[in-house]
Amino acid sequence: MEAFIEKAKTLIEALPYIQRFAGKIVVIKYGGSAMIDEDLKLSVIKDIVLMKLVGLKPIIVHGGGKEISYWMDRVNLQTQFIEGLRVTDAETMEIAEMILSGKVNKSLVQLMFQQGMKAVGISGKDGAMINVEKKLVNGKDIGFVGNIKHVNTEVLEVLLNSDFIPIIAPIGLDEKGQSYNVNADDAAGAIASAMKAEKLVFLTDVEGVLLDPYDQRTLITEINVSKAEELIQDGIIAGGMIPKIKCCIDAVNNNVGQVHILDGRVDHSLLLEVFTNSGIGTMMVK
Ligand SMILES: Nc1ncnc2c1ncn2[C@@H]1O[C@H](COP(=O)(O)OP(=O)(O)O)[C@@H](O)[C@H]1O
Ligand SMILES: CC(=O)N[C@@H](CCC(=O)OP(=O)(O)O)C(=O)O
């Protein structure tokens, strides 16, 4: 009986959030660093299934950086990152596409299928969704790394209107049809803005933005654009957190209702964020 009362309380607490987000688009960026094992992946997928069942329109944009590095290592290729972006020569591009559009993307589609959900796994190449140009980092060419110029939302609209959950791998095309490796945070931010998403949630392997990356007690629960830029300048926000924060800034400046960074290693962090007032992780505000 107590367990039943607890469940009822949870449902009553969730109801206003369910009503508020019904029919709204929520973009979930599922980072490779939060895909630690199959149990955790299944737990994230179940949360997204629940969101869909209560009437939200989830879109998943996934990463898989760690998996790419693992396979690079297996074929004796060197991995190099500059400002959180992978230096991508032709061979690296080939591996990145195989891992992202193949292995990672289809494993998520498969988990959705096992939960009885209709998901379609595509990359930014499909339907000419993610159009890019070469990205330069401080004027430096780092290979086939794409800077998103435009997101063509047509294919996403078709999928959402037919009740599918889109699962997107971050690969784009330039105007000549060359493939580019796109940082998954950039892809999620650009897709959320283009789709005018109500919410953009980054699932990663830290609690949120930390003032001291080695001390989990220094979580910043709310951060504005100027503070975030200051922390990047000071080197407190570093590595893979840099593209994530830059995307959060672009998203809050471009139509996205709410932007959050959450710990994807914690069971049900997504549900806690979307359907309760627990306020976990870091929220980005203008
Ligand atoms: N100030 C900071 N707060 C939290 N994490 C930070 C910070 N600065 C750097 N990081 C790093 O950013 C990482 C998250 O980025 P990344 O590894 O690219 O994750 P994902 O695969 O989810 O995109 C964290 O694991 C952490 O090591
Ligand atoms: C250009 C660039 O860096 N692309 C990323 C794409 C995958 C990604 O972003 O994965 P996570 O979200 O797991 O980090 C990469 O090659 O690692």
Explain how this protein is built.
- This protein has 286 residues and is of the alpha/beta class.
- It has one domain: Carbamate kinase (3-Layer(aba) Sandwich), CATH 3.40.1160.10.
- 42% of the residues lie in helices and 25% in strands.
- The strands form four sheets. The protein has an eight-stranded mixed beta sheet with strand order 5-8-2-1-11-13-14-12, sandwiched between helices. A two-stranded antiparallel ribbon has the order 3-4. Strands 6-7 form a two-stranded antiparallel ribbon.
- Helix 7 packs antiparallel against helix 8.
- It is globular and about 60 Å long.
- The model has no long low-confidence stretch (mean pLDDT 93).
- The chain binds adenosine-5'-diphosphate (ADP) and N-acetyl-L-glutamyl 5-phosphate.
